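User: Please work through this fold.
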Amino acid sequence: MKDHYSLQIYSSTDNLPKEWDHLASKNIFLSKDYLNILEKAAPINMICHFIGIFKEEQLVGISLSQFINLTNVNSLGDRDHCFKTMVKNFLFKKLISNVLIIGNNMLTGQNCYSFSNTISTKEGLIQLNNATQELRDLFKKRKIKIHLTVFKDFLIPDSKKFKMDEFKRYYHFNTQPNMIFNIKESWHSIDDYIADLNKKYRDQYKRARKKAECIEKKKLSLSEITQYHAKINELYLNVAENAPFNTFYLCENHFEVFKEKLHDNFLFYGYFLEDELIGFNTLIKNGQDIDTYFLGYNHKHQREKMLYLNMLYDMIGYSIKKKYKRIIFARTALEIKSSVGAIPIEMNGLIQHENYFLNLLMAKSFAYFEPKTEWIERNPFK
């Protein structure tokens, strides 16, 4: 007899079934606590839903969807005001402003779903595809038309699991790689890491550390994050508004809610120069991985003190000391992350436009809108 599957779309974590966290046990980014952060402190142009897949009465799959409205976001950044950018922004808002993402647009990596061993990956993905139609119908009732539907991010072998009729209209795209730093078992401290660097990159480490000798690094508590609330937001926007591509901006209380909900699984480090907060970075503990999260800094001090590079070294030192296996450095700043030892891992996604004819042009249009980054991969080790 054919198994009977059903879907439930939740808009509040209060309604999630009690078994939810059992399926999320290997990924904090699908846990109730994390999803509650999105519920309370998602970007203002984002609406999140939580997807439960049931086999008969049993919860066998969980996932996350994010609706993003690009209308009020300067998606292409502030650095280029030429006519071509104006055209791109116009087309963005007219043709692809309403985006439904299955997965998490705020992270890099496979944080899309978790299935139990009682459902095949193929059947789970079919059910998620069914969920996209339910979500489109839900938004249609709110008079919101979904333009694009996206599944993200998947390793190349995993993306092949989508090769079935249900996904034949989707275009498989490849964006900037996920930068992964693998921690060697032989490393027990930052000194072991430094010893494995070749001379050029040992000198880079020493130079960066010398530049930052006058900077004090401090792990901030919830009350301290709240105390520096305005400055933190200013430093975050200094970085975010200069990014080549944006689909959202964090709301001002995002880091406070994060710390309140995840406690010591969320680490917030402030960098101070003469008692002034000049930068910060954030880390999330996720099993044997450390995921880097958002950061911010003063551009003047970043240049003078090599602040960003020092943050990367601090993340490496912490992760080695605490015996993590990997650091998920995510996208952006590919070359500098490569210079400290991170390697690029290609990730795939799937995308389709609701308009049949526009969807036929997806390959060309995606290449037009996707920012291209030229960079040189480094190998800092002996």
